[in-house]
Amino acid sequence: MSTYHPLTENEAIEIARSLTSVLPNAETLHCREIGDGNLNLVFHITDPNSGRSLIMKQALPYAKVVGESWPLTLDRARIESESLIIEGKLAPELVPQVYKYDPELALTIMEDLSDHVIMRRGLIEGGRYPRFAEDISTFLAQTLFFTSDLGMNQQEKKLRVRDFINPELCKITEDLIFDDPYTVSANNSYDAAIEDEAEELRTDGELHLEVALLREKFLTQAQALLHGDLHTGSIFITPESTKVIDPEFAYFGPMGFDIGAVLANLLLNYASRDGWHASDSEAADYREYLITTIRDIWTQFEAKFLKLWDEHGIDRIASAAPGYKELYMKRLLQDTIGFAGAKMVRRIVGLAHVADIDRIEDAAVRERAQRTALAIGKSLIKLNRRAESIEQLIDAAVTASSAVKA
Ligand SMILES: Nc1ncnc2c1ncn2[C@@H]1O[C@H](COP(=O)(O)OP(=O)(O)O)[C@@H](O)[C@H]1O
Ligand SMILES: CSC[C@H]1O[C@H](OP(=O)(O)O)[C@H](O)[C@@H]1O
């Protein structure tokens, strides 16, 4: 057994050699560290002779984006590999295959998905993904239903909750999403041009009440096993295939947090479109595509979730009580909308931003995109407990966005 230390590329190659089932008869192996996320090392290892390859992801004992001053548990590698295995059983073909997990080295060895693109990049480049709504709604319905008290043995679920206690990664979310953006915090980071917006976030009592309620849900509601960080940088995609990666933030939390994460990141891209198109009509056309995708995701998710409930529901009273399903789905939509809003706001004024907006070169266009994202985010947070349908999320997003343009 090797003692923990961050691997070099050569060490990664030596470990890869032992995986003869994935890289049989390997002679020369090539390795490159390709990690572009905020937290971990990622090694891409290829055998040029056979064309075979694999990915090794290693947790560092600190948050890479900040440095060693922010220590972070290595246990997140266990959480990630166990989540990928559970998700792979519930949603086959929608996550990478895990070949091996090494607890000593905090290392997950998995399928190489380099034939896909990271969805955030694909969206920035104007890609369209006709399978996405179908795939992600299946991923969400399967993983959330079958790890909740509706679809999983309720005693086993309690034991699972224990396995996925993830306090350090949850604390990142609690701080970065549900606290820092609404106060003066050293973690925050935003352009000076939107100081007025940041000030408003710090003083809006109506917003603070809704954020406090969402935060309470995130802290206390062990509804289902979440991915926990389901943004478009955690999704690999092609027009024919979708693969969800990077579930190191997994824990038992409110389902709407995962669904909201997906919708929020589509809306962040929506807010960015003027920065990526030659003409207004191209931008408008792409925004329409994003709105259709958002509508399809919720509609398909709802239908799939309810079908699973009808066919596999294990909770007698929850399945039979008149009106319960309708109320459950309405609350889930409301949570989705609220969490989506909170996830948009944090990406503009908080520590970790999104390339969709940050990489817009023209400062005025970037500023408008930031203001648009904040307007949509705030409007969704304020809407959440009043919402009855996905059309209200769409109306709120379109209206908030048009108000910024005017
Ligand atoms: N299975 C994979 N196949 C190919 N590339 C991968 C795979 N997993 C991660 N990567 C690459 O590594 C990058 C960072 O991975 P990610 O899991 O998001 O790390 P972090 O947890 O640090 O955010 C991804 O953006 C992608 O480019
Ligand atoms: C200090 S971690 C900031 C941020 O990074 C994580 O994203 P990723 O692992 O995909 O890079 C997560 O969203 C955290 O909130």
Describe the structure in your own words.
- It is a single chain.
- The protein is of the alpha+beta class and 406 residues long.
- The protein has two domains: 9-110, Phosphorylase Kinase, domain 1 (2-Layer Sandwich); 117-405, Aminoglycoside 3'-phosphotransferase, Chain: A, domain 2 (Alpha-Beta Complex), CATH 3.90.1200.
- 52% of the residues lie in helices and 12% in strands.
- The chain contains 15 helices and twelve strands.
- The strands form four sheets. Strands 1-2-3-7-6 form a five-stranded antiparallel sheet, sandwiched between helices.
- Adenosine-5'-diphosphate is lined by residues 34-40, 42, 55, 57, 96, 110-114, 118, 233-234, 245-246, 248.
Q: Give helix % range.
A: 40-55%
| CATH fold group of the largest domain | Aminoglycoside 3'-phosphotransferase, Chain: A, domain 2
The CATH H-level superfamily of the largest domain is Aminoglycoside phosphotransferase (APH), C-terminal lobe
| Low-confidence runs of at least 5 consecutive residues | none
The figure for the number of domains is: 2
Query: What Rg do the Cα atoms give?
Result: 21 Å
Tell me the distance between the termini: 62 Å
Largest β-sheet summary: 5 strands, antiparallel
Q: What general outline do the C-alpha atoms trace?
A: globular
Strand content: 5-15%
Name the strands of the widest sheet in spatial order.
1-2-3-7-6
Q: Helices and strands, in N-to-C order?
A: HEEEEEHEEEHHHHHHEEEEHHHHHHH
Structural class by helix and strand composition: alpha+beta
Mean pLDDT: 97
| Count of alpha/pi helices | 15
The CATH first-level class of the largest domain comes to Alpha Beta
Keywords: Amino-acid biosynthesis, ATP-binding, Kinase, Methionine biosynthesis, Nucleotide-binding, Transferase
InterPro entries: Aminoglycoside_PTrfase (IPR002575), Kinase-like_dom_sf (IPR011009), Methylthioribose_kinase (IPR009212)
EC number: 2.7.1.100
Subunit structure: Homodimer.
